[in-house]
Amino acid sequence: MTAYVVALFAGPGLWTAIGVTLVAGLMRGFAGFGSAMLMAPIFAILFGPADMVVTVVAIELVVSLQLFPQVRRQADWKVLTPMSLAACAAMPAGVWLLASVDKNTIVTAVSAVIVAFVVLMWTGWKYTGRRSTAATVAVGAVSGAMMATTSVGGPPVLLYLLSGNDRPEVNRANIVTYYFLTQFLLIVIVLATGVAGWEALTRAVVLFPAMVLGAWAGEHLFHGFASERTYRNVALAILFATGTFGLLREWLLG
Fold first, then answer.
1. Mean pLDDT of the 113-129 span
2. Global pTM?
3. Taken in order 184, 187, 189, 191, is the CA torsion positive or negative?
């Protein structure tokens, strides 16, 4: 069994993946976001884009399953229903891109999305348009296609949902519920089409304890040592570094 697990991660990739997942868990614990964005570019390099999508989304889905029962009553279903339906409808197009586009192109794309998201968060930019049904559907469709192609579908949804005047607990509930409603279907589509194999789910099972440990440490060990804003900026700095590495990887590894 141990040899099988090591083979899945191609030698030293096992420890790299565990380390990345542990840091992703820390970010999830103290900042509440960014875990998928941290794992995606590194896992795409280690395992390939298709397996990366299943592994990352499966890890995140387990977290969503834990959190959803706690937040479902606070979620804004009038926004989430059309957004989630649009995301699910757009996923097949994203899976087609995942199967058709070159690996290096996907790594570059996900890295660029992460860097752009971090820059927008640092500048304080917010969506100022009206939350119409058309806008909600458009955001969901873009997010669903991005999630299927790169596993990183959060940025458009985060920027859209956080632009309103909802209470923090409602924003948290909306984000958790959106992921809960969309991630399971994405895994089914990717596996059913044969774009990725079941080995990707095995990797998720192996790595999930590192995510749980990191999230626990992030929530408890860092509590009281710095402000929430400091945690947020640290998380954004880590994501920026990860995205920049993904963009410059060929030059850096040269």
1. 85
2. 0.84
3. negative
